[in-house]
Amino acid sequence: MRWFVRGDLDGFFGLALDNLVQLLLIVSLCHFVLGFDDTLVYARILPGAAMSLLVGNLYYAWQARKLAAATGRTDVCALPYGINTVSLFGHVFLIMLPAKLAAAQAGHPDPARVAWQAGLAATMAGGVLEALGGLVAERIRRGTPRAALLSTLAGIALSFIALGFLFRTFARPVVGLATLGVVLLTYFGGVKFKGGLPGGFVAVVLGTALGWATGIAPGADAPPAPSLHLPVPVLGDLWASLPQVMPYFAVIVPMGLFNLIGSLQNLESAEAAGDRYPTAPSLVVNGVGSVVAACFGSAFPTTIYIGHPGWKAMGARAGYSVLNGAFVTIICLTGTLAHIAWAVPIEAGMAIVLWIGIVITAQAFTATPREHAPAVVVGLLPGVAAWGALMAKDGLRAAGYGDTIPFSEAIIGKFQAADVWIHGAFSLEQGFILTSMVLAAITVYIIERKFHRAAAWAAGGAVLSAIGLIHAYQWTFGDAALALKPAWEHAIGYAAMAALLFVAPWITERDEAGHGAH
């Protein structure tokens, strides 16, 4: 198999565009949500991201050529690889922003650096978890219902990805709706533009043109001339960040698990398309990519992408992966991405991210048994609740809380006067990823009438509450933040549920009238 074929160019445009959108998101979120300066973004984070993407893309290209040589085939396609979209949002909103707010409240002289360090620690921990998990991925997958995994992922996708960008779409309707039309037409309509132009490419070009025409683009200040930013190990900052990682394990562990299982499913998808890759090394290198990212300054993990059959159908082989790694490395190390971010508004690519959120949410329903649909809905709810709690807190901050007025228990009474039970929302926000898994798994096993398994998951919820990984929060001046202390009321509630489910086989009988999911 040759290193480069004609189809590699088509595959490169699609994969590189996907990674470009993620990089533009990183720049936008780091600047406007986390308040990072240009030096931190362009001299530390982006070079680290380039190293992680280069390592993975080159490995998977080599792996494809190795498989081709072993089988004597010339149609082997490398696994697609890039920045993990869901983890990107999870790290920003669930780890780095809370870390920054806590540091600011504590009077730290550089809260932005604390936020970056928290992201480094989370990326390192997630990468190690994925690398080690690659050795036992099948066992983890067999022990957790698919609805519990996919619905939790869908909750993040629906709320933190899709809804946020839906708001932005209708805030900038000229750009937002036009590019959304392109994405829906090509990705859901099953058509393509004449000349073979990728739909994502057309959307970004059209969105950029409309952005310039409506004054959204270019950015306020033109960036300086491109300059070389070589990757530098940040082991000192990484070491300093490790004590900060403990409060966020309720986010890191399940998110690493989702990434692990998602990558495993993508390997299955590649095998179904005819390319069978060994599980352990593929998943280990996926985790190693995130470890490399953390060591060189990127706070954002990487992953094996969905869509291998699509890239293969385009004719992509090994070369598209090499081209993608080279492209990302060049734009990140030379500062060229600053010029792209200045010229291309995030609105030009947000329809693609919105599509990703829609697809992930839809997959939770289509890739699980039909009778498990109620469990998927149950699993979605904690993620939506967590996003709603975040919106409520942002609204409070806009009204002066956390600035001149402290967050306190008095807030609860004011919300309850409007029949908004904000205490429940704040409780659900803490460790919501684990809560989603627990509730969805309980529902799956109740639907299947495996009541003792459902009781075991409920007991797990009690344990997680008792050790403070879910539902426990504390008041700080500027937040209702996760607290690693027992949430005894919730632990008792889960224990009561577990007891009920355990005795259910003896106190209930099958409803022959057909009520319920069956």
Could you outline the blueprint of secondary structure elements for this entry?
Layout: H1 6-32, H2 38-71, E1 81-83, H3 85-105, H4 111-133, H5 137-143, H6 146-171, H7 173-188, H8 199-214, H9 235-241, H10 249-272, H11 279-295, E2 302-304, H12 308-314, H13 319-333, H14 336-343, H15 350-366, H16 373-398, H17 410-416, H18 422-429, H19 432-447, H20 451-466, E3 473-476, E4 479-482, H21 488-507
Antiparallel strand pairs: 1-2, 3-4
Task: Provide key terms for this protein.
518 residues, 2 domains, mainly alpha, two-stranded antiparallel sheet, 69% helix, globular
The tally of structural domains comes to 2
Physical arrangement of strands within the biggest beta sheet: 1-2
Poorly predicted tracts of residues: none
Order of helices and strands: HHEHHHHHHHHHEHHHHHHHHHEEH
Provide the helix percentage: 55-70%
By helix and strand content, what is the structural category?
Answer: mainly alpha
Question: Would you report the number of β strands?
Answer: 4
Question: Based on CA inertia axes, which overall geometry fits?
Answer: globular
| Biggest sheet features | 2 strands, antiparallel
Strand content: under 5%
Give a short synopsis of this structure.
This protein is mainly α. The chain is 69% helix and 3% strand.
Question: Any overview of this molecule?
Answer:
This protein starts with 5 loop residues before the first helix and ends in an 11-residue tail after the last helix. The model has no long low-confidence stretch (mean pLDDT about 90). The protein has helices at about 5-30, 40-70, 85-105, 110-135, 135-145, 145-170, 175-190, 200-215, 235-240, 250-270, 280-295, 310-315, 320-335, 335-345, 350-365, 375-400, 410-415, 420-430, 430-445, 450-465, 490-505, and strands at about 80-85, 300-305, 475, 480. The strands form two sheets. The protein has a two-stranded antiparallel sheet with strand order 1-2. It has about 525 residues and is mainly α. Strand 3 and strand 4 (about 480) form a beta hairpin. The chain is about 70% helix and about 5% strand. The protein has 21 helices and four strands. It folds into two domains: about 5-365, no CATH class; about 370-505, no CATH class.
